[in-house]
Design goal:
Radius of gyration of chain B: 20 Å
Order of helices and strands of chain C: HEHEHEHEEHEHEHEHEHHEHHHEEEEEHH
Number of helices of chain C: 15
CATH class of chain B: Mainly Alpha
Oligomer: heterotrimer
Largest interface: A-B, 41 and 44 residues
Number of strands of chain B: 4
Shape of chain C: globular
Shape of chain B: globular
Strand content of chain B: 5-15%
Number of strands of chain C: 15
Chains: A mainly alpha (295), B mainly alpha (342), C alpha/beta (403)
CATH superfamily of the largest domain in chain C: Response regulator
Distance between the termini of chain B: 19 Å
Chain lengths: 295, 342, 403
């Protein structure tokens, strides 16, 4: 085995793999944000809280309904997506005519409310959620021990990201969605129910966040603050990737996960800030983001 | 945010336009002078520091139309720098020449007026750097960039040795103002804070009601048109950003001396959220809105400390309520109902 | 201003005749401040208020004619919130003594304010050993534990039982670094070796990368120099990556029984930690736990709760002896003069630097099969006698100690 900068190649590959695993969370979350922003022009600050709701939904399903992880993967995003639809109908629909910043402020307020409520009832210690028995254990890859669950996370995230991208960019439904964002009146004139599409799109973006939450539940602590600090990193990812671009969000998510992983090896104290440094550099060179459609 | 200012108010004649503001200012100043007799002075000082912070923030959102989601950066780092100058004095600047070196500027612990000035200048410098990066984007992108940069500086604050991480800079001496006014006395400190607040408030008023301020409002209403008239809008926006950052730095520096503490809370993103809340509740684009909003939020938090985390729920509910129903804020609605300018 | 308040209080107290005990505005007000909703809410929180109340009842304050009032507040682990609360408490609400205060950054801030206003500060929750070192004051007593005693207990005992190579996973903030530094010093002094260390961002969520580095160092012991949810997450993820299965042991440098409860025995088994008090050690403790648990939603008392009980008991004893609660320095001097004796910690003393002295205990977390009831988590590995458990007074650097 060879050495790079004093780290053995074994350790390096291990860290790269872990970076990829973390990147899949960033990708899933920024995908939801990119979908909502790309389609609806709303910055969904509640995304972090909805991620947290997904994890809690998985916990509740197990605790009170006896439904395990595989149920949670389907039910939790649907349930949280439904709350997203309620939010859109109750609050967001009044804001489309106004400056986009009001949407940001409103979703910020909703995030505070949701997180505050959960913090009150559940404190901050976090709740346990076990890795599903089918995915326990791991493989000894030689250069590291890879828990099965983490491998599953990467595979599943890539699948979800790619299928979402495909639906939006390559199918008729996606075409309708993209057209409705550009010119809602014209698309309505064709007989397509634009408000309903918008509502469902928001619900879908929220469901993606909740899905990420369910996937996070077995490995990260299920606590009311799990979304709060993650959301800002995800915003940085979306800014780097380019706000309207779905593929940009996916690629940047995975890419930044890997960069963060490498930073943890060579300069661990900076691993929190490296994403923002990258963002600052990207903004200087390409203000629209790497794949963005322009300011 | 083009729909923020109320068009009817600007159509009033110039004399009437400023009369209501002058009267309101006098009422506010008198009320604040007698307030310590009725309320706990430390609480009042806290409200005044946040009122100044909100006024600084309002300069950017209300009059230029730029929503900064990372203003805690300037508030908190103004606080840190002032606290450091007041307690330690010596400033060590790192520079790279083959390896890291430290350039040490040996200073004794500074008196309060110089410490606050130092904090303000440092915040101005940060404002220049952050502004230069962020002004390239508009609207929501601008907000996202400021948020991300502020968060980066937060993590830097956690690690930098002189901020002492989560301990913060504690036991900051209040010192003697101008060499002889002992600020350890609560009354002296209060009136110093009041003078700083009123002074900065008047400065902001002067900036808004000046040719420079008129250009800013033009940029907020219709930037392309302002560009077509020949104004270099990027420069105006940057200057406004730096001014806003400086006043926020003054607010932070003063707060550090009042509480004798500069901590991570001051640079964290919930602090940015709070100042937005204060300005939104009070009224974006009004002169007195931020002051009212700050007092409202600080009082609310004071009375809600017993209910723990519900404070966040209440704050969130106020955000939602204001965005949906009370977009003009308290002072904005009052001004509209009374048909005056506030 | 502060001088004026205490002087007036003292004047009132003295002027009203010395036969009757005179307490400032007639009441002894105890302020219990800690984290009521965050990561430390379980190990302190409402439980500390309950412990203080039990102490007042057991002391029989009412029967002795002492009117005692207890107030609680949440400092949210933030020094500015904490100092705000304490300032208002002392200036406006006339609180006489501040108790508990976990989170060292808050405790250090409160330490300064209480000294300036001449009240009493009894620290149970916080760990910073600086409170009896360079930052010691005549108004503060550090009751339950500190970083030095934890480092000494865990570090020394583990090295002596064969764990002589260490790798540190440290939270990248002042407290984590202090904990790592103290423990590393103890390890090396006792013949062990520190093979490496890595600083993880605070607060962290994913430790897989750092745990992997710890694993590849092949150290026998991975020392976790962090607290709260960071510790819980590190342990969970270490189990996930098979680190404990492959022969390395985790040493939690700051952990409480509530953390073990949150992790569950399956994940936490084999964990080694030092604590000052455990509810199942003797009959008196068990009896206290039996009365405490139903009041705190079944949560059993932690060493922090026990420390609050013990501190409040001793405080009331001193106030009763002085017949006044006004002068903080005088009360603390009395508390150092009188030996301590309560049913939870037994007999002990308070040193001149403000350090309360009692034995510390090294525990190992039981395997699930060994536990017979909920909260039956620990088996005792070693007892560190009181005279060895804490940093020698001369080494502290406390200005109150005449060298």
């Amino acid at each position: 085995m060879f050495e790079i900068f004093g780290i053995s190649s074994q350790a390096l590959f291990g860290q790269l793999l872990i970076g990829l695993i973390n990147g899949s969370f960033y990708a899933l979350l920024s995908l939801g944000l990119a979908v909502i922003f790309g389609m609806l022009n709303i910055i969904n600050f509640t995304h972090g809280a909805q991620y947290m709701l997904g994890a809690f939904a998985a916990f509740f399903l197990l605790q009170y309904a006896g439904l395990g992880y595989w149920w949670a993967i389907v039910v939790a995003p649907l349930a949280v997506g439904a709350t997203g639809i309620v939010i859109e109908r109750l609050f967001l629909q009044w804001l489309y005519k106004l400056d986009h910043l009001y949407g940001l402020l409103l979703t910020f307020g909703l995030a505070l409310m949701i997180e505050g409520t959960f913090r009150n009832f559940f404190g901050s210690s976090g709740l346990p959620y076990a890795v599903p028995p089918e995915l326990q254990g791991g493989q000894n890859l030689g250069f590291m021990f890879l828990p099965n669950y983490r491998a599953w996370v990467v595979v599943f995230s890539i699948a979800v990201c790619l299928s979402t991208w495909f639906v939006i960019e390559r199918t008729k439904l996606g075409a309708y969605l993209r057209a409705a964002t550009e010119n809602p009146t014209l698309v309505r004139a064709f007989g397509i129910n634009v408000p309903r599409m918008i509502t469902l799109t928001y619900g879908f973006g929220v469901a993606l966040a909740a899905l990420a939450g369910v996937m996070a539940a077995p490995i990260y602590n299920v606590s009311p603050q799990m979304g709060a600090n993650l959301i800002i990193v995800v915003f940085a990812v979306v800014v780097i990737g380019g706000m309207g671009s779905i593929m940009g969000a996916i690629l940047t998510g995975f890419g930044l996960g890997v960069i963060e992983g490498l930073t943890k090896v060579f300069f661990p104290e900076a691993s929190n800030t490296v994403i923002f440094i990258v963002m600052a550099i990207v903004l200087l060179i390409r203000p629209a983001g790497l794949f963005g459609r322009g300011v | 945010m083009a729909d923020v200012a109320d068009p009817k108010a600007t159509q009033a004649t110039p004399a009437l336009r400023s009369q209501s503001e002058v009267i309101a200012f006098v009422i506010m100043a008198v009320a604040l002078v007698v307030a310590p007799a009725f309320a706990y002075p430390v609480f009042l000082m806290k409200a005044l520091c946040f009122a100044l912070f909100a006024c600084a923030f309002n300069l950017l959102i209300g009059y230029v139309g730029l929503l900064s989601f990372g203003h805690a950066l300037f508030f908190g780092w103004g606080a840190y720098f002032a606290a450091h100058l007041a307690k330690v004095g010596a400033v060590s600047l790192p520079f790279w020449l083959g390896k890291w070196h430290w350039l040490v500027i040996p200073l004794p612990p500074l008196p309060p007026e110089l410490a606050i000035l130092g904090g303000a200048l440092f915040a101005a410098l940060l404002g220049l750097i952050v502004g230069a990066l962020a002004i390239r984007r508009q609207g929501i992108y601008f907000a996202m960039v400021t948020l991300a940069l502020a968060q980066m500086m937060f993590f830097f604050a956690v690690q930098a040795p002189f901020t002492h991480g989560e301990d913060g800079i504690q036991a900051v001496p209040r010192g003697k103002l101008l060499g002889f006014i002992d600020l350890a006395d609560q009354t002296n400190m209060y009136f110093t804070v009041l003078v700083i607040f009123l002074g900065c408030f008047l400065l902001i008023y002067r900036i808004i009601n000046s040719p420079f301020g008129e250009v800013l409002k033009a940029i907020r209403e219709n930037e392309p048109r302002a560009i077509s008239l020949g104004y270099k809008t990027e420069r105006y926006k940057l200057v406004a950003f730096v001014l806003s950052a400086t006043f926020a730095g003054v607010a932070g520096a003063t707060k550090a001396l009042v509480f004798q503490l500069a901590s991570l809370t001051d640079v964290d993103w919930p602090m940015s959220g709070e100042v937005i809340l204060m300005t939104l509740v009070g009224g974006l684009g009004t002169l007195f809105g931020p002051v009212a909003g700050a007092f409202f939020v600080v009082t609310l938090e004071n009375y809600l400390t017993t209910i723990g985390q519900w404070v966040f729920v209440v704050q969130g509910a106020i955000f939602v309520g204001c965005v949906l129903l009370l977009r003009r804020g308290i002072i904005g609605e009052l001004a509209r109902v009374l048909r005056i300018k506030l | 201003m502060k001088g004026l308040i205490s002087f007036t209080a003292l004047a009132v107290a003295l002027g009203c005749g010395s036969a009757q005990a005179q307490y400032s505005d007639g009441t002894i007000k105890i302020g219990v401040m800690n984290d009521m909703s965050g990561t430390y809410a379980d190990l302190s929180g409402q439980g500390s208020v309950i412990a203080a109340r039990m102490a007042v009842e057991d002391f029989g304050a009412a029967a002795k004619g002492m009117k005692v009032e207890i107030v609680g507040a949440d400092h949210q682990n933030k020094p500015d919130v904490g100092s705000n609360v304490v300032r208002t408490w002392i200036d406006v609400d006339k609180v006489d003594v501040i108790v508990d205060v976990p989170t060292s950054s808050v405790a250090l801030a409160v330490n300064e304010i209480v000294r300036d206003k001449n009240k009493v500060f009894l620290v149970s929750g916080a760990a910073a050993s600086d409170l009896t070192g360079p930052k010691c004051t005549p108004n503060t007593i550090h009751w339950t534990y500190d970083t030095w005693s934890l480092a000494n207990g865990t570090g020394k005992s583990i090295v002596k039982t064969g764990g002589d190579t260490w790798f540190f996973l440290t939270a990248n903030y002042a407290f984590g670094e202090a904990l790592e530094r103290d423990t590393a010093a103890v390890v090396e002094k006792n013949g062990g070796k520190v093979l490496g260390k890595v600083r993880h961002p605070f607060p962290g969520t994913d430790f897989s990368s750092f745990l992997l580095q710890a694993q590849s160092s092949k150290a026998k012991i991975i020392g976790l120099a962090n607290a709260g949810s960071d510790t819980i997450n590190s342990i969970k993820q270490a189990a996930e990556f098979g680190i404990t299965q492959s022969g390395q042991n985790l040493a939690a440098l700051l952990a409480f029984i509530t953390d073990v409860h949150a992790l569950g025995l399956k994940t936490a088994q084999g964990l080694i930690m030092t604590e000052a008090w455990y509810w199942d050690l003797n009959d008196a403790n068990r009896e206290f736990a039996k009365k405490f648990a139903p009041q705190d939603k079944g949560v059993h008392p932690t060493m922090v709760h026990a420390g609050v009980y013990s501190a409040v008991t001793h405080y009331l004893k001193a106030v009763e002896a002085l017949k006044s609660d006004a002068d903080g320095r005088a009360i603390v001097a009395k508390m150092k003069e009188l030996p301590t004796d309560d049913k939870l910690f037994g007999k002990g003393i308070v040193r001149a630097d403000g350090r309360k002295i009692h034995p510390m205990y090294l525990f190992e977390v039981k395997k699930p099969a060994e536990s017979k009831a909920p909260w039956d988590y620990y088996k005792l590995r070693a007892t560190i006698p009181a005279d060895e458990a804490f940093r020698p007074m001369a080494d502290g650097g406390c200005p109150l100690v005449k060298s």
